[in-house]
Amino acid sequence: MVVNQFDICLVNLDRVVSMEISQTRFCLILSPREMIDSLSTILIAPMSTSVQNGPSRLEVSVEGKKGYIVLDQIRTIQNRRIIRRLGHINDESINQLISILAEIFIL
After folding, report:
1. Tell me, what's the pLDDT at 8?
2. CB of 29 closer than 8 Å to CB of 10
3. pTM attached to this predicted model
4. Rg for the chain (alpha carbons), in Å?
5. What angle is formed at CA 106 by the lines to CA 39 and CA 74, rounded to 5 degrees?
6. Is residue 24 in some structural domain?
7. Is residue 1 part of a domain?
8. Of 17, 18, 44, 66, which has the most beta carbons under 10 Å away?
């Protein structure tokens, strides 16, 4: 399956520890194309439908439903955890995402 940076995919996140987000859920692919092609792992940010506004959450629309990219729960997964590709976030959301990540990582 071909996925790209900023795609939203359905991912199996089971077998987690403590406060990590679990279950099968929408996730945003953060890895750039070069990493996706050369590694068996992908960097993702899980999504939630729970309203938890904060500086590390970005509201987006997926398949006509409102959701939140949870940037304080970024993790690495094996490629095989991806079930299917659902779509891609728009340019405005990408720019907001980059700004939030820059603030989180003090770039």
Report:
1. 96
2. no
3. 0.89
4. 13
5. 40
6. yes
7. no
8. 44
Split at pLDDT 50, 70, 90, the class of 62 is confident
Q: What is the CATH number of the domain that holds 17?
A: 2.30.30.110
CA atoms within 13 A on the CB side of 94: 12
Does 2 map to a domain? no
Domain that holds residue 55: 7-104
pLDDT of 18 > 60? The answer is: no
Distances (CA, A) of 31 to 8, 16, 26, 53: 12, 20, 15, 24
* DSSP-assigned beta bridge partners for residue 54: none
The stretch 10-23 carries a mean pLDDT of 73
**63 contacts: CB under 8 Å, gap ≥ 6:** 86, 87
Please count the structural domains in the chain.
Answer: 1
C-alpha span between 96 and 107 (Å, rounded): 14
Owner of token pair 């859920």? 25
How does pLDDT run across 28-41, given as a tens digit for each residue?
A: 999 999 999 999 99
In a domain, 95, yes or no: yes
